[in-house]
Every structure is written in C-alpha cells, then in structure tokens.
Amino acid sequence: MEETQPLSQSELPLCDSLIIWLQTFNTTAPCQDVKQLTNGVAMAQVLHQIDMAWFNESWLSRIKEDIGDNWRIKVSYINELLQLILGCAVNCEKKQEHIQNIMTLEESVQHVVMTAIQEVSCIMITYLKRALEELQEAQAEKEELRQRCQELDMQNEMMNEKLDHLFVSEKTNDGNNIINACFLYARLEAAKDDYRVHCEELEKQLIEFQHRNDELTSLAEETRALKDEIDVLRYGLSKYNYVTSELLNSHFSIPLFYQGFLEISLYRLEEKHEALLKEKERLIEQRDTLKETNEELRCSQVQQDHLNQTDTSATKSYENLAAEIMPVEYREVFIRLQHENKMLRLQQEGTENERIEELQEQLDQKHRKMNELETEQSKERIRELQQQIEDLQKSLQEQGSKSEGESVSNLKFYYGNSVAYGLSIIGPVQKISELEAALQKKDEDMKAMEERYKMYLEKQLAEKERRIEILESECKVAKFRDYEEKLIVSAWYNKSLAFQKLGMESRLVSGSGTCRDTGACAPARSFLAQQRHITSTRRNLSVKVPATTAD
C-alpha cells in the first residue's frame, strides 16, 4: 500500500473550505478531515445527492465501505476531486439550492469556494476548447474517410466492370485464357473481400466518430452557455468597477481640493514670512550703517571741537583729558541714542514675534480645518456606503423571487464584494486619526525648532552686541590715544615757544647790559629787520632746545 502524500501549505485552506462545504450535505459517512475522505464514501454520497439520475443507487452500491484506506485515492488529489464535485454541484439542475447553501457559509469560506468555482470553470473552458479542437480534427478525419470510401466504391465498380469484361471475353478465348481469367478472378475476389472488410471497419469508425461528434456538439452547446454566463459576469464586473471608481473619485475629489487650497495658503504664508525676515535683515543692516555714520560724525565733531579748544585747554592738567575728549552734552546725547536704539530693537523684535505667532496660529487653524474636513468627508463616505449596502441588500431581497439562480448567485457575489469594499473604506478613519497624531507631533517639532531658532538668534544678537561694544571701546581707546598724542605735540610746541621767549629776553637783557658798559649801542633796526632777526634766532633755538631738555 502506498503512503499518502501530505498537502502543501497553499492547498490546506482550499481543502478545509471544501470539507466545510461537504458537511452541509449531511452525509451518513463522516467527512470531518482528510483521512475520512480517502475511502471515497462521503464523496460518493455527496455526488448521489447532487444528481441521483446519473449517480444512482446501483452506482452508489458499488462504493464499498469498511475497506480501510484506499491506496488509489491519494491525498494529493483530494483537492481536484473536491473541486470536480463542486463543479458538478454548480452545473446540475439544483445548482440554485447549492449556491444558496454556499452563500450561508462564512465569508472567508465563501471567498475560497468562489475562487475554486472560477478555477473549475477555467478548467472546463480549457477542456471544452480542447474538445472543440478534437471535434474539428474528427470532422476532418470523417471527410477523409468519406472520400476514401468513395474512392474504394469507384475502384469496386471498376473491378466489377473488368470482371464482367473478363466473363464476356473468356467465352471467345481459349482454355489458357480461361485459366488466367480464373486466377485473376480469384485474386479479384480476395481483394474484394479485403476491401469489404476494410469498408466495414471504416463504417464502424464512422459510427464511432458520429457518436463522438454528437458528444462534442453537446459540449460545444455547454461551452456557448458558459461563454454567455461569462459575458454576463464580465458585464456585471465592469459595471461594479465603474461604480467603485465613481465612488472613489467622489470620495477623494473634495479633500484633494481643500488640500490644494490649504497648500497654496501655506505657501503664501511662507512667502510672507520670508519677506518679513528679509525686511528685518535690511532694517538691521540699515541700523548698523546709521550707527556707523553716527559714530563717525560724532567722532569728527569731537575732534573738531577739541582742535578748536587746544589753544585754550593747553594749560590744563592731564587728568582732565577724558572730560575734554567727551563733553557732558555729547555724552548725554550718546546715552540717549543708545537707549533709543535699544528700545527700537526691542520694539522690532516684539512686532516680529507677534507676527510669527499670528502666522503660526493661522497655520494651526488651517491644519485643524483640513483635518475636520477630512474626517467629515470620510464619515459622509461611510454613511453613503452603508446606505448603498442597505439598498443592495433590499434589491437582492426583492429580486430573489423573480430572478433565476444564476442572477441570484451573481448578485450575492457582487454583494459580498461590496461589503468587503465597505469594510476596506472604514480603514481611512483610523488612518485619519493617525495622520492627526502625526500632524500634532509635527507641530510640536515645528514649535521646538522655532524656539531653537529664536535662541540661536538671540545668541547671535548678543554676540553681535558684545562685539560692537568691544569695537566701540577699542575706538574710544584709539581716539584717546590720538588726542593724547596731539596734546603732547601741542604742549611740546607751547613749551618750545616759552623757552624761545625766555632766550630772547635773556639775549635782549645781555645785549642792553653790554651796551651800557661799552657805551656803544647797535644801530637802530627797522620793524622788518627786527622780525627777520627774531625768526632766525627762533630757528636756532628750535634746534638747540631738545638737546638742553634731554640733559
């Protein structure tokens, strides 16, 4: 006895679903699993219930029970046998009852059984195509045999004519001719018998081919009926696909429109935000340039004032240099300008923060409106689908008594598909909630990024202010140093003038004394001669004075 072959993982669901369908026939033989089906008793009883005229009691009595496992029925062919039984059930006279029993099963079992029916129909179509091809070949062979029979009949007539001619000619011929004619007649009789036997065989083959032709014509009629059913199913499927596509288009057209509108508004808000940022940068640059020009003007004005006051402030002490460089009124003006600059900066930052908050609130409102519209559209779509399912169910109940079994099965099949489609549409509600959570998370990330951006911006502004203060302090130090050098030069110049005056006075005093002692005075000089003499002596003193100070 051969061992049963195990089923593969892909064949188990089909086998289990077909076993569940077999259990609806309530057979006396058990059919709970594959092992109970290997003896063939349960399948034979199901076939007897499907068609009692063909699978009658005499046929059923030949199926023996209590013989153990039948090695001829292997487990690997259980699916094919069950599919063939299913094909017999949906193509018999009571197919409407069997289809109704199938529709009472679970949805998953219905789906598997429907796929099995489609596979069986495909197999039958291929078988019928092959049968039509064989029918055409048989008809061609029939024509060839008919032509062959006609040729043999013609040959037989020709032989009979030759035989008659020989009978006529043997009367006139001599004895040898008669003997030859007898031999020829014997050969012709033998050939005639052979041809007769061959004709009988051909007639038998012709009868067999006629029976086969009748069977193939019946199969061709069945194929035409199946093709008509397939055309009806295709028409229904195309109509169902058109309805589903229309429903999907009506479901997604409005949210896509609102989504595009919200994307356009978001893009405009982003453009406004970028324009505000550019305007802010431009104002900052303008403020920096104004600050620089203000500082340059102030420094130039201070230098001009101090250059004008060098002659009057030369005798003051070095401790009052800072007060002389930056007068009180300029210091007050500088402090007031700094305060105004700081207030303007704070005001600008406040307006920018308010504008950013307004834009963020508008963006949040747009997102909330978009989510509300999507949820409303999905809920309306679910209600419409539920209403369509109820309408389909009512139409099925109304047309159940009028339509035939095939239309009832098709409508129920479409109803199952519409129910599955409705269940698949309910999924977007959960997807919308997930999208809302993701959108909320994205908003939180945007807020965190905005806070980080503000913090970085504040750090950069603080760093910039610190650098500005450092540069201002360096500029002040450089100005103090320049002014100090100028004061030293002016003090040195004034000191040299003082020494020059002292030298002139000493020379004048010494000259007047010598004149009194000698009694001879220098001749009187004019005003221009005296000035030239003073300038020449000043030059000599300017050369000699640094040496005296260095000592």
From TrEMBL:
Gene Ontology CC entries for this record: microtubule
A matching Pfam family: HOOK
MF-aspect GO terms: microtubule binding
SUPFAM superfamilies, A to Z: Hook domain (SSF116907)
Keywords: Coiled coil, Cytoplasm, Cytoskeleton, Microtubule
Coiled-coil residue spans: 125-219, 266-300, 346-402, 432-481
Ranges of residues in domain Calponin-homology (CH): 12-128
Protein's cellular compartments: Cytoplasm, Cytoskeleton
GO BP: cytoplasmic microtubule organization; cytoskeleton-dependent intracellular transport
Superkingdom of origin organism: Eukaryota
Matching PANTHER family: HOOK PROTEINS, PROTEIN HOOK HOMOLOG 1
Family, similarity comment: Belongs to the hook family.
Protein name as it appears in the record: Calponin-homology (CH) domain-containing protein
Record organism: Sus scrofa
